[in-house]
């Protein structure tokens, strides 16, 4: 069932979301200072491509630098990405068939809002 949901997700929104996060990751890695954000974008892109069967957990070994970087991320991009995922989640939840995909968008909100200090693991 997860594979079927992932394939349908890939067709309807996963490919474009993953592509957007990957492009943002390339841009962040091109600017030397923002390489941690680029790595986080690539991690989110992989999760956005194939979300069913994975979950986001906190990394307890992340330090103060991750917290400070997350504050910068929220101000620059995080709030807008989270609002986009919330809007897409609500739009998908309007139909009965779209509810699992809306829930997948809601699962992407925490990691898009605060990506550093998070880890994506199999469910």
Automatic annotation (TrEMBL):
The keyword Ligase does not apply. One of its GO terms (cellular component) is plasma membrane. Residues 4-53, 68-118 form the Inner membrane component domain. The keyword Lyase does not apply. Pfam families: YccF. The chain crosses the membrane at residues 15-42, 62-83, 89-109. It comes from the Bacteria. Keywords: Membrane, Transmembrane, Transmembrane helix. This is YccF domain-containing protein.
């Amino acid at each position: 069932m997860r594979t079927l949901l992932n394939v349908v997700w890939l067709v309807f929104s996963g490919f474009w979301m993953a592509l957007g996060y990957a492009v943002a990751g390339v841009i962040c890695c091109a600017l030397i200072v923002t390489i941690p954000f680029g790595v986080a974008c690539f991690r989110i892109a992989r999760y956005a491509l194939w979300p069913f069967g994975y979950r986001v957990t906190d990394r307890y070994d992340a330090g103060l630098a991750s917290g400070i970087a997350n504050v910068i991320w929220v101000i620059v991009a995080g709030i807008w990405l989270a609002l986009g995922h919330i809007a897409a989640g609500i739009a998908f939840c309007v139909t009965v068939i779209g509810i699992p995909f809306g829930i997948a968008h809601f699962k992407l909100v925490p990691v898009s809002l605060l990506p550093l200090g998070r880890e994506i693991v199999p469910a």
